Amino acid sequence: MARKALGQHFLLDFNIISRIVAAAAPLDDLHVIEIGPGPGGLTRALLASRAASVTAIEIDRRAIAALAELHERAGPRLSLIEGDAKTVDYLALTPAPRAIIANLPYNVGTPLLIAWLRNAAAFTRLVLMFQREVAERICAAPASAAYGRLAVLAQSVSHAECVFRLPPSAFTPPPAVESAVVRLVPRAEAPPPPVLAALERITAAAFGQRRKMLRRSLAPLGGDALLAMAQIDPARRAETLSIAEFLELAKALLARGE
């Protein structure tokens, strides 16, 4: 039985599971990390692919026990780790090349993604299921209603695409909202960590008061002076800026020694 406190909604439809694996292809020789395998539907499909290994992280001890037989059959190609996905060192977990493919629990999906984005270059790709609203925020374009901090952070380091949507009826138990699968492929030339850290500060301030002009929302970080360095009109609002313009603001913040 799924636990509401853990955000569990199990995906058992083989056709949909196959579409998720196909969205992550090719998996040849990749070390795949799965979060929250639950009863193991996606885990089995990943093992049936040409992935080099599958490492499944599960916080629910009941699921670990339920996957014991699968673990025995798969041998060393499948690793089961009982623990909290928010505290795992993913770079130490498996060798490269690695990918994350998961039906994420709704209650931890966003913080997990932001943490992975900080090390996006360490992954070949990420294919992740979120509630539809979050998926749309990740893939949103500037000036759209869903465009915000999550879109800027995700798209600054990766190519993000909403692959397909799923109705609540695809899950057991059905969630109250629709879901969607997002594919993120890291960019070959991603901003360095100091720029990404500055970008997190810029976007938190800019979208924290998204209806205000940037000279107001960014006042604690330099306001007009910061915007002048990035050659951005201080009367604009956060949702009108492109990813490139946000990166210029982040570089300007670093140049100011903030």
**What is the CATH topology descriptor of the largest domain?**
Rossmann fold
**Number of continuous helical runs:** 12
**In CATH, what is the homologous superfamily of the largest domain?**
Vaccinia Virus protein VP39
Strand percentage, roughly?
Answer: 15-25%
**DSSP helix fraction:** 25-40%
Judging by the overall fold, what is the CATH architecture of the largest domain?
A: 3-Layer(aba) Sandwich
Distance between the termini: 49 Å
State the total count of DSSP E strands.
9
Largest sheet: 7 strands, mixed
Given helix and strand content, the structural type is alpha/beta
Look at the structure and give the CATH class of the largest domain: Alpha Beta
List the defining traits of the structure above.
elongated; Helicase, Ruva Protein, domain 3; alpha/beta; disordered N terminus; 2 domains; two-stranded antiparallel sheet; single chain; 12 helices
Overview of this structure, please?
The protein is of the alpha/beta class. It folds into 2 domains: 183 residues, Rossmann fold; 63 residues, Helicase, Ruva Protein, domain 3 (Orthogonal Bundle), CATH 1.10.8.100. It has 12 helices and 9 strands. The protein has a 7-stranded mixed beta sheet with strand order 4-3-2-5-6-9-7, sandwiched between helices. Helix 1 crosses helix 2 and helix 9 crosses helix 12. It is elongated.
